[in-house]
Amino acid sequence: MRLLNNGIEEPSALAWEEEEEEEWEEEDKKK
Prior knowledge:
Layout: H1 14-30
Region (Disordered): 1-31
């Protein structure tokens, strides 16, 4: 989970964090 600058967790980030990770895996396969 990503943290805000003040160190508080941002629960709303969960869904798109997971989606971003999948995209990063796709990018890694292209390299």
